[in-house]
Amino acid sequence: MCEYPGTKDAAALVVAAARQVAAARADYSADEIDGALFDRLWLAQYDFLTAARREVGLKPLPYEGRRSPVQPASSG
């Protein structure tokens, strides 16, 4: 059970964003999916981790402005 409503809301946003990516993936290859869908997913994931860490008394992870956790930020 979540101590803060924001954690529950953040978890729901991760699920919603993942569903959008999955729905797009049904019709398109991974390379053809709009990058904005992945951006929303990674941001929702970061927001959820931040909320969950707050609940257990941990500091938030640094956000380095990356588009995704597996794609390095562009150098130019």
Automatic annotation (TrEMBL):
<protein>
    <submittedName>
        <fullName>Uncharacterized protein</fullName>
    </submittedName>
</protein>
